[in-house]
Amino acid sequence: MNSTTNKNDLTNEVTIMTALTRSEMTDQTCQKMTLAKQYLDEHCPLDQGSHTQVTHYLVYYNHLMAFFADGSHCGLEQPKQFVALCGHRDDPTAILLKKKDGLHIELTFNRRGDAGQIDMAHIDDIQMETQLSTVDSNNDATQLKRLWISFLTGIEYSIVREGQSKAYTAKDGSEYVL
To answer: Which residues contact 174 (CB under 8 A, 6 or more apart)?
Structure first.
C-alpha cells in the first residue's frame, strides 16, 4: 500500500464517521422534537390533527393556524392559548402559547437552524416555562427566577435580573413581556 491509498482510506473513514454522527444527531433531534410536539398536543391541542403533522404555522386575524401537508388547516382547540408572536404573522420567528396553568410554551422557528432544517414546520426549538423558583445569589437578597427549559437541548435558561425579559407582540398588536 502506498501513502495515497492510506490517506484515501482515512478520508473515507472520517466521512463515514461524520455521516453516522450526523445521522445519530438527526435521529435524536427527531425523537426529542416528536416528544415536544406530543407535549404540545397534550397541553395546547389542535382542533384536528397533531402538532407532529403540521408543516406551517401562521397568525390569521389573531388566531394561530396550523397547516398540514395535504393543504388542510385548523386552529387551536382553545384559541385563547395563543398569546403572542415574534416576527411577521405570515412567517413568525417565535410563537408563544399559554397553558391552562398560566405557564408558557415557546416555539422558535429557523429554517437554517440545526433542528429547523429537518423539521417539517421548521421548528428549531420548543421551550417550556417552569414555575418561579427562588435563588439565593451569594447570600444577598433572595430573587425570583423564571426558568425556561429546552426540549431539544435540555438547557435551562433563566430570567433573573430586573430588566431582563422576553418580549413579544401580543395577538392584538400590543407588547407582551415576560
So the answer is: none
57 pLDDT higher than 50: yes
What is the C-alpha to C-alpha distance for residues 33 and 19, in angstroms, rounded to an integer? 21
* Three-state SS at 77: coil
pLDDT at 106: 96
Contact 121, 131 (CB under 8 A): no
Cα 97 to Cα 37: distance, rounded to the nearest angstrom: 13
Q: Provide the grid cell at 155.
A: 438547557
**Mean pLDDT of all residues in 18-22:** 39
**pLDDT of the residue at 14:** 42
**Cut 0.90: pTM above it:** no
Q: What is the reported pLDDT for 136?
A: 56
* Cα gap 35→56, rounded to integer Å: 18
Q: Output the pLDDT for position 164.
A: 65
- The full DSSP string for 97-149 is EE-TTS-EEEEEE-TTSTTTTTSTT-EEEEEEE---EEEESTTS-EEEEEEEE
CA distances for 11 relative to 3, 5, 16, angstroms: 12, 10, 9
* Kind plus residue range of the DSSP H or E element containing 66: strand 63-68
Q: Which residue has the cell 397533531?
A: 50
State the Cα–Cα distance between residues 99 and 82, nearest whole angstrom: 9
Q: Which residues pair with 104 in a beta bridge?
A: 98
